[in-house]
Input
Amino acid sequence: MSVTSISPVSKEALAVIESSLQEQQYELQRAIQKAEKEIRAFHGSGRRDAVDDSCDNASKESMFASYSHNRTRLRKIELALKRICTSDFGVCVDCGGVIGSKRLEAMPWASNCIECQKKSE
Output
């Protein structure tokens, strides 16, 4: 829900943010592809003793957690890039207010202003 169709971020700053988000998107896509290959390789490994299985389970859990985190972050970045294309970047999706520049610098994928984010937590 956008109150304004003009981004509250300057064109120059927006270009830098967009480039950074695209770079992060690419890196996350590569990390996700690598994790998918590693996860598939684990499924093909044979059973061994209980200690090996325990170590494998811990490794799998770590891989799945990292994979899930990367997928979530990638989705946030993709949504931020979409908001740039629609000129809604920097506008809170809940209240339509401006997302602070310090918040966008720290988390360029942020979709809520700090007040709405606090309410949702």
Remarks:
- Residues 1-5 have pLDDT under 50 and may be disordered.
